[in-house]
Amino acid sequence: xxxxxxxxxxxxxxxxxxxxxxxxxxxxxxxxxxxxxxxxxxxxxxxxxxxxxxxxxxxxxxxxxxxxxxxxxxxxxxxxxxxxxxxxxxxxxxxxxxxxxxxxxxxxxxxxxxxxx
Length: 117
Prior knowledge:
Blueprint: H1 2-10, H2 15-26, H3 31-35, H4 39-46, H5 54-72, H6 77-100
């Protein structure tokens, strides 16, 4: 089972995608009930875990896309407000991961919403 998870990770799949593949194609609803470890733990043991957690990296990618939109549409007030909310979410999540030791204490996200106001 762990070898299958590692194989799927080496193909470039994220932890959530691995879970979906195992559920849909292999009929395995929960990896943890079979192996005693979560998919993320298996990836950490194999040295394949990402440096930034998957949920935080998704938020960072979304912020990058919003900034790219705002560079073309500087007067989009709704998007500016949504970027503020998203950056707040990024900050809260990064503080949580710093407390848990997942991110290094020196990791910082530089907010960009101020440049559009």
